[in-house]
Amino acid sequence: MSVRSAAACDCIGTMWHFFADYPWFTLFIVIAAGSLLGMVRFGPVKLGAAGVLFAGLLVGALDPDIGPAVPAGLSVLGLALYVYTVGLEAGPAFFRELRPQLAVMLGAVAALVLTALAVGVIGHGVFGIDGPFLAGGYAGIGTTTPGLAAAQAASEDPAQAATGYAIGYPLAVVLTILFVAAVASVRNWPGRRDPGTGLPDRLVTRTVDVTRAARWADVPGAASGALLASAHRPAGSAVRVVTGDPGPLAPGDALVLVGGPEAVAAGVAALGTEAPEHLLDRRDVVDYRRILLTNPDLAARTVAELGLADRFGARATRVRRGDQDLLAHDDLLLQLDDRVRVAMPRERTAEVSAYLGDTEARVSEVSAVSMGLGLAAGFLIGIPKLTVGATVLSLGTAAGPLVMAMVLGRLRRTGPLVWVLPTRANLTLRQIGLLVFLACVGLTSGYAFRRDAFSLFGLKLLAVLVLGALLSYALMVLVCRLLGQSRPRTMGLLAGYVGNPAITAYANSRVSDSRVNTGYATLFALAILVKIVCIQLIVGL
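Below the sequence we write its predicted structure tokens.
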């Protein structure tokens, strides 16, 4: 080697060692670079947050000292924030769907267990691949970040689990999207046990000119709560807010209807004709606006429990939660950061706003007391261990906070303690936790990934994971078909079964139906828990 070549190598080695000497810089440069990588579209696929994992693997592969320099325990903190916030959001949907979707849940559990057995038997029995690689690969084809943490915790060499995960993850996203596309293309899909959710995909507001006398209870959708009335102008009188039953409707009246397009159209047809002018365009008597719910005393209360009618003569008609518009029926549970659309007497607008909160600064506030207690309880239930032969099972730091958060998310509040988080705060903490965890995993596993992935061994592991993924997704689709689930719900259930939001986004792009998101929420948290148990079994066996 020439003097110039040796000097160049020393320079490069010094540059790579810089990442080991300054780990905090390395951590955040990986998060930044990986986030950019996650935005790149490969056909219909984007890596999203997983781009941080691959950026970490790349940097970690440069020098063996980079991984050990990562601050100890940081990945555990990131994972805990991620699973806790996921559990708070997923818990209510899981318990709500437990009874009506129990058969689907049991079918998903069976499919996950059979897939774990297939990966373990084929991988170890046929190809002689060690358990940690297979456990990480199983987590990868399930795109479950908590599962990766469980595989690392159960392995003597955590880098082996990360290698398997990195090989399985992109494979899972591509294959699942192909499965979703195949399901979407099947037109003859009866869904005999899944007629629909009854929830509108969007809400509209229309004013109807009443041309025939009617009682509100007789209007289609009024009794079931699918149609609301927000304002009423009796013939020859002033506009008033409807706080309950608007009373007898007579020709010459004008009434504002709120609901899904079909429900509103049916209401207009039953009462008369759509008015050329919207009754609420003039806001001199009745005002309406969206008000941000930031009063912690009102979190986890129902719309009826707000008492808007008795307090202010006002009526909530819609609730904007994230990107979703919900009809504000009396039993709808509210959460912090909801935007509540209220029709109210103009002179009471300031009072209603003050009552609901309407303070942007409080949207990102997090109760340190409730969050601290919730995470502490989650870590506590993760401590006990159950030994089954050579396998040690525990909830650990991955599933413990998740299970506790699901329970607390279902409870919503206990006395003065509000367990749920504002939507924006929840999503922010979730993203930070996930990015930190993936960056740490990538950096600590990069050098081993470089050694194992690009070899004959890596090809063998890839072959096992392809077979496992195809078996897993086919079993889930078969379960949905046998249990009479509709095509949109099957797409959502498959996305939740795999557990990747990119797949949900793709499913929503193929069909506009609320059952996609409902199906995703049904299986997402359950699948994570089952995968964690299966992963520990794969490592042990």
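The mean pLDDT is 83.
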